[in-house]
Design goal:
Helices cover 47% and strands 12% of the residues. It contains 13 helices and 11 strands. Helix 2 packs across helix 3, helix 4 (90-103) crosses helix 6 (136-148) and helix 7 packs parallel to helix 8 (194-207). Strands 3-2-1-11-8-7-6-5-4 form a 9-stranded parallel β-sheet, with helices on one face. The chain has a two-stranded parallel ribbon with strand order 9-10. It is globular and about 60 Å long. The protein has one domain (3-332): Luciferase-like domain (TIM Barrel), CATH 3.20.20.30. By secondary structure, it is an alpha/beta fold.
C-alpha cells in the first residue's frame, strides 16, 4: 500500500437505491445491513442522502435513516451527504442533529447541500422554489448559529445548543467558496472532469478562513469506485447506475436498478441522446482490479491533496457490491475483519 493511500480516510455514501423486484423498505434495510459490513471493514464514516419523489431512491429522510444506521452500528461515524438545507428550516435541522448527537455522542456528521427539489412538483410540495438555493450561505450561518447559541431570536435550539456536530459542505457550483468562507470541510465530486475538480479544490484552499469548526482546509473527494477480480467484472458493476442515470436524464424519472445482464438488452433500444448520457455515466469512474484502482486512487489523491475519499457506488448485485468494498478496504488498509 502506498503512503499516499495509507494516510487517506475512506468512507461510504449510500443512497438506498431500489433494485428491480424489490421495494423501498428492502432498499432501506439493505443500507442498514451494509452499514454493519462497512463498519466491520474499517471505513471511517457512513453517510446517507436526501432525495424526494424519486422512484429509484428510497432515501428521502436522511436524519431518520442516519439514526437507524447509528443504532445498528457501534463506533463508525454516521451522517448525511447531505441534508439539502434550502428544503428545510435551519432550526429544525439543528434540532434533528442535536437529537442524533445526543443519542450517539461523538459519532454524528452534518453534511449539508444547497440543492432544492429536482422538479417543480417536488419544490411545490416542499414549499420551496429554485431561488431558495441562492441564500444557502445565510441558511448555513443561521444553522451553525443554533449550535453556538448566537441566534438573535431568543429561541434556544434544544438539544442542539452547545453540542459539536461537525458540518461539511457539499461543494456544487459556488459551494467551494461558501465552504471556504465559512471555514468548513468540503465534499467535492464528479471525477469525470478532473480539471474542474482541481479548480474547485484550489479555490477552496485559497479562500479558506479558519473557524471554530475547522482550523485548516479539509477536502473530501467523492466518486464511484468499483473493484473486482477483472476489469470486465468491475465495469459490469457500473452498468445499472449508468443506465438508470441515462434514463433519468432523458425521460425525467429515475428507475430502480436493473441487473447488469439486462442492461445490455436495454441499451439496444436507446436513442442517440440516451447513449450519450449512458457513455458519460461510465466515464471518469475508478473501476478495475485492485492494482488498477490503487494506482488510480493514488493519482486522484495526489492531484487533489484530499484527506478523504467518499465512495458512492451503486449497483444491482449486492454480493458483487460488497466484494468491491472488501477489495477497496484491502487497498486502503482498513480491513481488519480477519485479524
Amino acid at each position: 500500500m502506498s503512503s499516499v493511500i495509507a494516510r487517506t480516510r475512506f468512507s461510504v455514501l449510500d443512497r438506498s437505491r431500489i433494485r428491480e423486484g424489490h421495494d423501498a423498505g428492502a432498499a432501506l434495510r439493505d443500507t442498514v445491513r451494509l452499514a454493519r459490513e462497512w463498519e466491520r471493514l474499517g471505513y471511517h464514516r457512513i453517510w446517507v442522502a436526501e432525495h424526494h419523489g424519486v422512484p429509484g431512491v428510497a432515501g428521502s429522510a436522511p436524519t431518520v435513516l442516519a439514526a437507524a444506521v447509528a443504532a445498528a452500528t457501534r463506533h463508525i461515524r454516521v451522517g448525511t451527504g447531505g441534508v439539502m438545507l434550502p428544503n428545510h428550516r435551519p432550526l429544525v435541522v439543528a434540532e434533528q442533529f442535536g437529537v442524533l448527537e445526543s443519542l450517539f455522542p461523538g459519532r454524528i456528521d452534518m453534511g449539508l447541500g444547497r440543492s432544492v427539489g429536482f422538479t417543480d412538483g417536488v419544490r411545490r410540495a416542499l414549499g420551496r422554489d429554485k431561488d431558495d438555493a441562492g441564500d444557502f450561505a445565510g441558511q448555513l450561518e443561521e444553522l451553525l448559529g443554533w449550535f453556538r447559541g448566537t441566534s438573535p431570536t431568543g429561541v434556544r435550539a434544544r438539544p442542539a445548543e452547545g453540542l459539536t456536530v461537525p458540518p461539511f459542505v457539499l461543494a456544487m457550483g459556488e459551494g467551494a467558496a461558501i465552504a471556504a468562507r465559512a471555514g468548513l470541510p468540503m465534499v467535492i465530486g464528479d471525477l469525470r472532469d478532473r480539471e474542474k475538480l482541481r479548480r474547485g479544490v484550489d479555490r477552496y484552499r485559497a479562500e479558506f478562513r479558519p473557524s471554530v469548526w475547522a482550523a485548516e482546509p479539509y477536502v473530501v473527494v467523492s466518486g464511484t469506485v468499483a473493484v473486482a477480480d477483472t476489469p470486465e467484472a468491475a465495469h459490469r458493476l457500473l452498468l445499472p447506475e449508468a443506465w438508470s442515470m441515462a434514463h433519468a436524464r432523458t425521460r425525467g424519472s429515475f428507475p430502480p436498478l436493473p441487473p447488469a445482464a439486462r442492461v445490455a438488452e436495454l441499451t439496444t433500444a436507446m436513442t442517440e441522446k440516451e447513449r450519450g448520457f449512458f457513455a458519460s455515466g461510465l466515464r471518469g469512474q475508478l473501476a478495475g482490479t485492485e492494482e488498477q484502482v490503487a494506482e488510480a486512487l493514488e493519482t486522484l489523491i495526489e492531484e487533489t491533496g484530499a484527506q478523504e475519499v467518499l465512495v458512492t457506488t451503486s449497483t444491482y448485485d449486492q454480493d458483487a457490491l460488497l466484494d468491491s468494498y472488501r477489495r477497496l478496504a484491502r487497498i486502503a488498509g482498513t480491513d481488519t475483519a480477519d485479524t
